[in-house]
Amino acid sequence: MTQKQSCLILTNGRIGTVKPCRALAQALNLQVTEQSLQIRFPWSLLPARLWIFSQLAYKNFNFSSIASKATDFPDYVITSGRTAVNAGIEIKKRAQKRNVLTKAIHLMDPKLSPEYFDAVICPEHDKISGKNVIKCLGTLHDLSEQKLDQLPLKSPFEKNKHHKMSVGVFIGGPSKHFIFNEFVMDQLVQDMQDLSKTYQLLITPSRRTPKKLMSALYATLDDSHYIWSGSGENPYFDILKQSDALVVTCDSVSMMSEFASLTTPFFIYYLPSKSRGKNKILAFADRLLAGKYGQLYSKEALSKKQKEKTPLKIMPGVVERLRSALG
Fold first, then answer.
1. The whole model's pTM is what?
2. CA-CA distance, 271 to 180, in Å (whole number)?
């Protein structure tokens, strides 16, 4: 059996940056090692393009240890996020000095020239261009209908006979792009209360969701609905497996990307933008709506008879273009 090529994934350790890297490495059939990076002051305050002596910027990563001999270099280094931009560049430079071909791939906009990398993969809404830039609709992930079917059901939710169907609700929170004030939270609680009269709600918050909002939902909804408390394992996949429809606030590109890949109907709950025009995340949501991969949330739209939609599959196209770019 052919030995898998090696891959080093470097990120800030946050799940939103780690998951796309893992998904790409899996699609390329690579043997993965991961490292979460911690940055020293003053690099922690600087954009990637202003870093000098970047080999000194990391508290917990020693470039010399990875490059003590030529065979130590990975075949691929996949990076994501500001934290890891210069680490990927530095490893590629050191590999080149040893006449080793390490392919450097960065996910998302690195905020500097893409020519430092062999390839940059980012969503269509990122404002970056170049001959080695591969754009896709949304973020990379490994979720599919087949994978979801194969996952074991850990938390079965008992359906109430008075509810028409189960609706998974995924709630975000305050961010730099969207307003999430008292008015928005009151409206969200009111909308959930209205839905609860007809549908069983399976609700999971994010780490950004205000506790005040969750307390209001607990006080409003009865025990026939489920709200994840935030403790223990997030029943994310269990909710996806048992929902007849999905509702997600528009502040999560990763969840909108994943839900678009499923046949389950999903609805995008718009939040007011902080910018005057539509920000890049709303532009992405609009593209999903235009492609009929999702629908704009309203109680009326949800009440219509749902049809399974055509899932959005971005990974095969990305891998094909990436292999072509890398040669």
1. 0.91
2. 7
